[in-house]
Write a structure and sequence with these properties.
26% of the residues lie in helices and 32% in strands. The chain is built from six helices and twelve strands. It has a seven-stranded mixed β-sheet. It is globular, with a radius of gyration of 18 Å. Bound molecules: biotin (BTN).
């Protein structure tokens, strides 16, 4: 799909499904999350902004990692000013992960699972990741903006050195949904965040967790330890029981299902 065609198809799919959103489409950009920050002054209470790229030259993941962003994936940032206290920021990521899994299910019949806090997996291989960033407003209790960046492998199958841990929709079912239709359907779900009931979506988020009951490795800036994942709390935090029997509640962190 060439650039003009890509942009046209995305714009058409969005205009069929959504009003009061703006969509900006790139053939290639460094990172849609980085680019989104240039659009913050265009946000108002009615209009959210989506930025979508066919590929990224400097895709970013959590914890300063690189996110491989070749043609065939969907690289999308959702920029909004959510009415949410800063301490609930994790819920935006939880909501987006749930919306992403549901969109994949609608288009493929496969429901991915979520690895707390931000990754979608199929059979222990990573399908998608989410990077949420934001800034406080002047009061320090709400957001000036939040950007939810979603990268999902759709038609791409060449994962180079991460082929043993990454997958795509194409690799799973041998066919790929139309990226324009998929992105518009996902955007439609994401904008529902403003009116969504947090108890309801946090319940779904917990049901989609791939961690509960499993032994996991938790890496912190000062070292790593092993634990069994027990519960996703209604505030989005993860409760684990460490191998030494302590109950720990995590509000952020790096969790791995690979134990070595
Ligand atoms: C992760 O796996 O840790 C999160 C990956 C998030 C990737 C998406 S792609 C769209 C947006 N732009 C970026 O640079 N990152 C996010």
């Amino acid at each position: 799909m060439d650039k003009g065609n890509f942009e046209k198809r995305i714009t058409e799919a969005f205009s069929r499904k959504l009003t009061a959103v703006r969509v900006v489409v790139f053939d290639e950009v460094d990172s849609t999350n980085t680019e989104a920050k240039k659009y913050v002054d265009f946000l108002d209470s009615e209009t959210d902004i989506f930025l979508i790229a066919k590929s990224q030259s400097a895709g970013r993941g959590r914890l300063g990692r690189t996110f491989l962003s070749k043609d065939g994936g969907l690289y999308m940032s959702y920029l909004s000013r959510p009415c949410l206290p800063i301490q609930d920021a994790i819920k935006l990521t939880s909501f987006a992960a749930t919306a992403l899994c549901e969109t994949v299910f609608e288009f493929t019949g496969i429901m991915p699972k979520i690895k707390w806090v931000n990754d979608c997996f199929i059979d222990d291989k990573k399908l998608a990741g989410i990077l949420t960033e934001g800034e406080f407003d002047e009061s320090g209790v709400g957001f000036r903006y939040a950007v939810v960046g979603i990268g999902i492998n759709i038609a791409n199958v060449d994962f180079e050195e991460i082929s043993n841990i990454a997958t795509s929709i194409e690799a799973e079912i041998g066919a790929s949904p139309d990226i324009a239709e998929f992105s518009a359907a996902l955007a439609e779900k994401l904008i529902a965040f403003k009116t969504a009931d947090s108890n309801e979506y946090m319940k779904k988020y917990e049901q989609l967790s791939m961690l509960l009951g499993r032994r996991i490795k938790i890496t912190t800036p000062v070292g790593a330890y092993f634990a069994t994942a027990k519960k996703i709390e209604s505030n989005g935090s993860l409760t684990v029981i460490t191998d030494s029997g302590d109950t720990v509640n995590l509000i952020s962190g790096d969790v791995s299902i690979k134990l070595n």
